[in-house]
Write a structure and sequence with these properties.
This protein has 255 residues and is an alpha/beta fold. It has five helices and seven strands; from the N terminus they run βαβααβαβαβββ. Helix content is 28%, strand content 9%. The radius of gyration is 19 Å and the shape is globular.
Amino acid sequence: MSTPYDLPTDLSKVKKFEWDEKYDFPRDLVGYGENSFNPQWPNGAKIAVSFVINYEEGAEHTVLNGDMHSETHLWEAPGGAPKIEERAVNIESEYDYGSRTGVWRLFRLFNKFNYKYTLYAVGKAIEDNPAVGISSVKNGHDVASHAYRWIDYANMPPEKEKAYIKKEIETIAKICGEPPKGWYYGRLSSRSQALVWEVYKEMGVPLLWDSDSYADDLPYWVDVPAEKNEADPKGMLMIPYSYGLYQSKYNLDIF
């Protein structure tokens, strides 16, 4: 086997992948096909533009949040080894800029021209700076979920991830006046989409859309594995995210 990645030397100790009927969504490589699909946007518009502002500041990896190591993701010199049981003050400072200054510059710009955005709010971040969520609601913008912590959920046990999902919904509802109707992780596990759907159902909260997909130019529906045997399955509406105009590509050599 040839691979450019640093894999464990003893692969016999790595658990083989097993399909999980509860958590695994099938892939769809066909989509709308050759003729695509006319979404019939209002007023005959040819495109629909969605503005999102990701608000993660203060919720990233840091020993101040009880983590073992510092953040290495989404700052202006990403990569490298994290600091173990030590603060990375320069990285903290870049995230602090976003909450102290950067987010307000963006808000003023959007409000000046009356362009509506969706705030992808990390729960811990708006707990630390509630004014960000409150201002968004006051000015008529949508607040969606960006998970409770800005961390990688890949190896988190399902029950712990479910507790984080519930805490995120409760946090946004408390600060912004209502629970989030949409969700975007960004650093999700293979179970995350199914767990989000499950927690929303258990809490009796409507989940209108999920954006943890990059698979299309248009929204599309997917079947939810847990609804396989239900008489009236609702499915999940996916509104694809895009890196096409993602800000990091303009200052980081990662695209």
